[in-house]
Amino acid sequence: MLSLGIFCASLFIFTGCCKSDLTETSERPAREFLLSGWYKEFNGTFYRDVPTENDEDGYKGAREKKHKTPHLDSNNSGTDWTATRRLPQALIIGVKKGGTRALLEFLRLHPDIRALGSEPHFFDRHYARGLNWYRSMMPKALEGQVVIEKTPRYFVTMETPGRVHSMSRDVKLIVVVRDPVTRAISDYTQIISKTPYIPAFETLAFKNHTNGEIDSLWSPLWIGMYAQHLERWLAWFPRTQIHLVSGEGLISDPAGELGKVQDFLGLQRIVTDKHFYFNKTKGFPCLKKPEGSSKPHCLGKTKGRRHALIDPGVIRTLRDFYRPHNRRFYQMAGQDFGWQ
Asked: What sign results for the dihedral spanned by CA atoms 278, 179, 99, 58?
């Protein structure tokens, strides 16, 4: 009897202590663990992706490193707070040099968004590796968080719409579009920054410079023919599942554009104008200082670089070329972007 009494008393003390520890953990507010937003990750328990390699936008992308992820079993609600890797519910599919990197970085401020920093190029280059490989690339996310990745090449790749549809009929698609002439010059500027001895823009843009025949298959010009690319996506997805972001709007009114994207994703408008300031040197918005950081967060040196100088006559010819393509795109989009 004495031994049994000692055993019971020990058991009581042990279970009491454990219960106290579990209660302290489980009663912590769940939102405390939703730390995927950019402000929290600098000081919080979880760490965002570390830049390691260049993506096609010239940004040092981020392959996901190990994350400290929350693991909670709430005794009160019975909810499993374990973060898992899952296929994305939203994709930023284009366009290159439209502002996709800025949009991704701005969206990462939202605590309910988990975004892959690098461009996985799954649907255009690595599709043979399978969905399990693709899922393994994604950041861990909690229930209720939206997983998102960006690869601008998706918008213009022939096979991609059908492949994305095979993954999910309900995926939400985001396209950042920009004046196609400005976009083409920006694209060329990036090209010559890596390959400085290529021919002049005017040489590459024309099949025959004498009669002004445009080479519409040259990639910097072909990408800007948005209507033909959007038409391919609309064969697989309804217009309501495709959200178009103005690249010019991301510069002039980032909070306004982000507000519409958050609505499209079904999220609360948490990223607002209080998060931005305009950097006159770079010529585009930057994020204000996060907690624990002494510097504001701007995109890399490849963003805001001075464009190559193009003959004004060539620019006028390109605007004439794109005008019918733009009108058709406006009709499909149900929106006039105001490009000249």
From this structure: negative
Structural domain of 75 = 32-333
Known catalytic residues? 97
Question: Is the pTM for the entire model greater than 0.85?
Answer: no
239 is in an annotated binding site: no
Q: Is 100 annotated as a binding residue?
A: yes
Alpha-carbon dihedral sign for residues 114, 115, 121, 126: negative
- Name the region of 332 (left: φ>0; alpha: ψ -120 to 50; beta: rest): alpha
Residue 153 resides in a domain = yes
Would you say residue 339 lies in a domain?
no
Digit-coded pLDDT (tens) for 268-298 = 999 987 877 666 666 667 777 555 454 545 6
Tokens 């990462």 map to which residue?
108
**What total number of domains does the chain contain?**
1
Q: How far is Cα of residue 237 from the mean position of the Cα atoms in its chain?
A: 20
